């Protein structure tokens, strides 16, 4: 490994460690830790978007984090962090929803994917800051986080929908297969009809040609027979010489 590759590997490892520390501090419920991240690693015009809200500005993001920490007992659980191309960090975490106004045994675990978008503070600077935080969760994750609805969704709704979709797919596949067979049969009938028409035309042409050949042969035979009869008549009955006519001068 060359010196350049060694430095690049060391930089990548350092960047990954730095990103992990930023993520862990950002999603902790320690005000000192996530406020420090907002202060040093967020742009002033940072954008925060979730399925239910969108806000702009680091101060507004600070207010959102403050409200979430005040309403919830437990910090999110970080499952995995993927940092790619030194520009985007994808964080898979579980949001532990346990409002302070409800009993502690009431808790929802919602899978969330947070994407942190980085960019350089200056074109020639190596310092990266977050300019967009995007939180997203799916309807499936919300349904599975609810105890009774999760059982109904997993064991009843999905099973029934699976049976319905497979049945409809089977019917559609059968219909498409039958239509393809009918189309193939129709093409075969058209091809056979076309071949039969061509054979019929060829037969008519041959029949007409044979008819003309027969007519020409018959005419030739008639012509030959006529000349042959005249010659035989000449041989059997030659013209008589009765002498000079009485009307001829003597």
From TrEMBL:
Region (Disordered): 229-250
SigF-like NTF2-like domain: residues covered: 19-173
Signal peptide: none
Highest taxon of source: Eukaryota
Protein known as: SigF-like NTF2-like domain-containing protein
The species this protein was found in: Lichtheimia corymbifera JMRC:FSU:9682
